[in-house]
């Protein structure tokens, strides 16, 4: 196994058992964005299935840098079933191997870079997915799962008080480079459907909520990540907003299990929210829980609520009705994230 804590592996086992992921065996899968927040947990689950349950899965992990892969997964990178694939979502691909399934998770997910590199952000989603779908068509891949985002829903009208389902959509400023990520995800989702209807490529779309875990990268500057890092480093958490916005927090292991579950059980051309219904809290409540578990102080600075989505709380009942369930509650998830932070 890769170098992960016993608690992290325990959560993986619970997710596998609860969502019947053991039936995923004897297949091959390509995971792009394999060293990202979600991609890492996806690969970890596949590794666990091989190492602990002998499921004989060929794992192809696409990443820009092999050294990053080794740093993250250690000696597992030398296993016969583990294959490094050099990959850049903004460039053409020429893969010479065939896989049964593809999970397209490669995407810039750093809000700071949305404005600094809006072209790369937009094209990484559209052009990157287009290349993957062309590859899937040539190689007769069984199914592609595209990891989208809750940001596709845009901003909701004031006073909204119900969870967002897959048919809801709000407003997005098309002339603001900040929304290169949002518009790229929206266009990529439509591209999945287009390939399915025109060429018969099976695809499923996953829309995660606010994902967190110990796999956060150093460049990740989202609020939840900053709270966790402060707790890990024994620093005071400082908030610069009211924190009243409601969010769907979901541990990366739960998100990863939902994605793998959808490879087998998701319906073609459907989108599914991924959220833990027991972890729908405000930003302030999340920060308070991080401060309590991490035993650090929480203070509020000058309030600035002018940026970000007003409301982002997802309803995951559509996926739950297929049999998937989140297993990591908020307290347990935050505890893992702080203790095992990379």
UniProtKB/TrEMBL annotation:
InterPro entries: Epimerase_deHydtase (IPR001509), NAD(P)-bd_dom_sf (IPR036291), Sc_DH/Rdtase_CS (IPR020904), UXS-like (IPR044516). Keywords: Decarboxylase, Lyase, Membrane, NAD, Transmembrane, Transmembrane helix. It comes from the Bacteria. SUPFAM superfamilies: NAD(P)-binding Rossmann-fold domains (SSF51735). It holds the Pfam family Epimerase. Gene3D superfamilies: NAD(P)-binding Rossmann-like Domain. Its cofactor is NAD(+). The chain crosses the membrane at residues 29-49. PROSITE patterns: ADH_SHORT. Residues 29-274 form the NAD-dependent epimerase/dehydratase domain. PANTHER family: UDP-GLUCURONIC ACID DECARBOXYLASE 1 (PTHR43078:SF6), UDP-GLUCURONIC ACID DECARBOXYLASE-RELATED (PTHR43078). This is NAD-dependent epimerase/dehydratase family protein. It comes from Limosilactobacillus avistercoris. The lineage of its organism: Bacteria, Bacillati, Bacillota, Bacilli, Lactobacillales.
């Amino acid at each position: 196994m890769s170098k992960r804590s016993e608690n992290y592996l325990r959560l993986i086992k619970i997710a596998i058992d609860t969502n019947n992921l053991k039936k995923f065996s004897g297949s091959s899968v390509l995971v792009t964005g394999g060293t990202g927040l979600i991609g890492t947990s996806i690969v970890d689950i596949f590794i666990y299935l091989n190492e602990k349950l002998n499921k004989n899965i060929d794992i192809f992990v696409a990443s820009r840098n092999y050294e990053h892969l080794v740093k993250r997964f250690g000696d597992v990178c030398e296993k016969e079933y583990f294959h490094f694939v050099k990959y850049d979502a903004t460039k053409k691909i020429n893969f010479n191997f065939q896989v049964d399934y593809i999970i397209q998770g490669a995407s810039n997910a750093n809000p700071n870079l949305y404005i600094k590199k809006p072209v790369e952000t937009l094209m990484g989603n559209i052009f990157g997915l287009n290349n993957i779908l062309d590859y899937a068509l040539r190689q007769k891949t069984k199914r592609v799962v595209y990891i989208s985002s809750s940001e596709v829903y845009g901003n909701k009208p004031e006073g909204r008080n119900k969870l967002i389902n897959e048919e809801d959509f709000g407003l997005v400023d098309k002339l603001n480079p900040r929304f290169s990520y949002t518009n790229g995800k929206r266009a990529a989702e439509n591209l999945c459907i287009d390939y399915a209807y025109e060429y018969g490529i099976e695809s499923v779309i996953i829309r995660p909520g606010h994902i967190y875990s110990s796999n956060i990268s150093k460049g990740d500057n989202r609020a939840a990540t900053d709270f966790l890092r402060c707790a890990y480093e024994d620093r005071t958490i400082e908030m610069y907003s009211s924190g009243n916005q409601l969010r769907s927090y979901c541990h990366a292991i739960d998100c990863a299990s939902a994605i793998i579950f959808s490879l087998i059980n998701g319906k073609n051309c459907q989108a599914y929210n991924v959220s833990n219904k027991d972890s729908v809290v405000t930003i302030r409540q999340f920060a308070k829980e991080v401060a309590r578990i991490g035993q650090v102080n929480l203070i509020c600075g000058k309030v600035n609520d002018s940026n970000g989505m007003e409301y982002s709380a997802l309803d995951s009942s559509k996926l739950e009705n297929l049999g998937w369930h989140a297993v990591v509650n908020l307290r347990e998830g935050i505890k893992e994230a702080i203790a095992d932070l990379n």
